[in-house]
């Protein structure tokens, strides 16, 4: 996915008038940058991100626009200057270094394919690109705050795959194609552009990876650099950082989950964030462990966000490790015949069904579901309302236990019916019984399903036929994928129950 925008003056002034005003105050000759600070004055860390680099470089315009960005109404919420070392931030130095490759690729395409001059790197345009990418990593689209040409892409390891090659083919087959289809390509081959900036972010929890490039006619007073010159300056700055005592943060690999840390290097006293992301059907197995090389344990603190912790960096390299375990020991997506995994996890996440409270860590997806358990599922789905237990009068087999309120609610709402003073709460439920209850909760609608499409559809009990026809037509119940049978009178398992409720509520 990618999007391009042209330079526009938001208040609607003609572009020519804007350029005339601009050129009256900006020299066409590239102005030199302020000299970088001497090594003896160096007090930056990796956590200062590109802001520290631009300040050291003497790029005052880049510094100013970054420092101002958090107060901007549109882009401000996405500019965390207190966490500039995060890999999710375009201000991260590793991301800045990676983005320089984009300038090199762009210049090669301009030179080799079109005979155009190379674009110079303008620190101010780099800063603007970083701000915009921080915004666009969380929002598909342009921020539209700065008057620059801009290319954006999401999910591309090399954005020029879309920006240049895909759109070049479109343009060459149709030179009149709208800018929305070929704008990236036209920005890249625009011979009037002289300066550029680029940015990259690993993205956010919303969108993975975002790349951006800004364009302008000339460079700002921050100066202009060739790709080699800019790389050399960044390498010089990073060498000073390494000499300024910064410690390594490593995340050890783990099965069934990923362990992310906000920085790869940090100075002592820096707050580092850990994010633990379990694989499907797995959960984090306790708090992460942070240890120094000599075995000392560093304390971690939960942030309040699920799976997220912080720790204060010691004056030593550290390794972060974490473990991941199945949410339920008997619900393994890799096990044969585990068709029920999605339904079980959905039911648990939505408060419909829980695992066993007996210390086993099991859910029991293949265990038979009793009538009382069935009542409990629907009672949970209803939000566990207050009930009048007087509805239980006359039933001699309903004890005062965990399911009493659920059964009373089910009787009140007519979804479970007893016979001759017996409710049979511990009897196994059948597939057709559960479907009939769901049908009653839907006010007994007419069904569009056809029982005859199943080889055993005729085995459906008379009381459940209308309900099963409704459930088949509404995709609440499906046949056995292995045999093609409906199995209406088979005992209901807990995995089946979770699946029926999920299909019903999502239908």
Concise account of the structure shown:
The chain is α+β, with helices and mostly antiparallel strands and 507 residues long. It has helices at 15-25, 49-57, 60-68, 93-114, 123-136, 160-173, 179-188, 227-243, 341-349, 371-381, 404-412, 431-441, 465-473, 494-506; strands spanning 2-5, 120-121, 149-154, 195-203, 208-216, 247-251, 257-261, 265-266, 271-278, 282-284, 289-292, 297-298, 301-302, 308-312, 318-321, 324-326. Residues 8-40 have low confidence and may be disordered.
Q: Tags for this entry?
A:
507 residues; 33% helix; alpha+beta; five-stranded mixed beta sheet; elongated; 14% strand
Description of the molecule:
The structure is a single chain. With 507 residues, this protein is α+β, with helices and mostly antiparallel strands. 33% of the residues lie in helices and 14% in strands. It is built from 14 helices and 16 strands. The strands form four sheets. Strands 1-3-5-4-2 form a five-stranded mixed beta sheet. The protein starts with a strand and ends with a helix.
């Amino acid at each position: 996915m990618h999007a391009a925008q042209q330079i526009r003056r938001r208040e609607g002034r003609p572009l020519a008038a804007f350029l005339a005003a601009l050129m009256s105050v900006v020299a066409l000759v590239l102005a030199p940058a302020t000299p970088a600070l001497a090594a003896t004055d160096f007090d930056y860390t990796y956590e200062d991100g590109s802001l520290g680099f631009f300040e050291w470089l003497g790029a005052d315009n880049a510094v100013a626009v970054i420092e101002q960005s958090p107060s901007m109404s549109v882009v401000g919420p996405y500019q965390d200057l207190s966490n500039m070392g995060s890999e999710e931030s375009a201000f991260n130095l590793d991301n800045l270094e990676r983005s320089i490759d984009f300038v090199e690729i762009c210049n090669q395409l301009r030179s080799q394919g079109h005979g155009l001059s190379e674009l110079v790197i303008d620190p101010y345009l780099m800063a603007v690109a970083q701000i915009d990418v921080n915004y666009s990593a969380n929002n598909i689209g342009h921020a539209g705050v700065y008057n620059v040409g801009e290319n954006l892409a999401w999910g591309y390891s090399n954005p020029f795959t879309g920006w240049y090659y895909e759109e070049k083919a479109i343009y060459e087959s149709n030179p009149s194609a709208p800018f929305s289809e070929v704008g990236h390509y036209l920005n890249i081959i625009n011979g009037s552009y002289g300066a550029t900036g680029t940015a990259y972010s690993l993205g956010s929890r919303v969108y993975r990876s975002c790349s951006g490039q800004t364009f302008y006619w000339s460079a700002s007073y921050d100066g202009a650099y060739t790709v080699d010159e800019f790389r050399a300056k960044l390498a010089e700055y990073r060498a000073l950082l390494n000499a300024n005592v910064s410690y390594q943060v490593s995340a050890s690999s783990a099965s069934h989950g990923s362990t992310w840390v906000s920085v790869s290097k940090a100075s002592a006293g820096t707050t580092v964030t850990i994010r633990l992301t379990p694989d499907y059907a797995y959960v984090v197995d306790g708090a992460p462990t942070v240890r120094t090389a000599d075995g000392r344990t560093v304390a971690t603190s939960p942030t309040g966000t699920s799976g997220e912790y912080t720790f204060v960096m010691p004056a030593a390299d550290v390794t972060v490790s974490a473990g991941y375990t199945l949410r339920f020991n008997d619900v393994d997506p890799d096990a044969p015949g585990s068709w029920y995994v999605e339904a079980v996890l959905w039911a648990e996440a939505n408060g419909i069904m829980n695992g066993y409270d007996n210390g086993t860590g099991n859910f029991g997806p293949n265990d038979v579901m009793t009538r009382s358990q069935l009542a409990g599922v629907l009672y949970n789905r209803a939000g566990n309302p207050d009930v009048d237990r007087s509805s239980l009068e006359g039933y001699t087999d309903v004890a005062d236990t965990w399911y009493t309120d659920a059964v009373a609610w089910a009787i009140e709402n007519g979804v479970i019916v007893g016979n001759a003073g017996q409710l049979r709460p511990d009897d196994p439920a059948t597939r057709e019984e559960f479907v009939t209850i769901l049908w009653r909760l839907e006010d007994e609608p007419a069904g569009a399903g056809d029982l005859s499409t199943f080889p055993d559809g005729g085995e459906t009990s008379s009381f459940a036929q209308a309900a099963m026809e409704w459930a088949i037509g509404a995709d609440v119940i499906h046949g056995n994928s292995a045999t093609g049978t409906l199995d209406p009178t088979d005992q209901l398992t807990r995995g089946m129950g979770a699946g029926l409720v999920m299909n019903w509520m999502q239908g």
